[in-house]
Amino acid sequence: MAYVLQVDFKMDGPFGDEMAEAFSGLAKSINEEEGFLWKIWTESPETNEAGGIYLSKETASKYLDKHSKRLAQFGIADINAKIFAINFKLTGITKGPV
């Protein structure tokens, strides 16, 4: 079984290249998480939001708890998060990268 974790939150920046530079260490540490497969980073400077979509072999609830604490260190507290199981048959039909 694989799971998708969707996370988003309000953030005043940085965005774009500045965000990539500021969070490259965090990105590298995410690769070390148990069961982690990939993450898509999301951002919207227009609405001051950021987040990501994670694919994991695990339920992702353990990672969500750890990541929420890490975001709190950046002053981010109001985090929206959802965990979904993946339907592999339908995802395969629509060429999902799992």
TrEMBL record:
It comes from the Bacteria. One of its GO terms (molecular function) is monooxygenase activity. It holds the Pfam family ydhR. The keyword ATP-binding does not apply. Keywords: Monooxygenase, Oxidoreductase. PANTHER family: MONOOXYGENASE YDHR-RELATED, PTHR39169. This is Monooxygenase. It comes from Mesobacillus campisalis. The lineage of its organism: Bacteria, Bacillati, Bacillota, Bacilli, Bacillales.
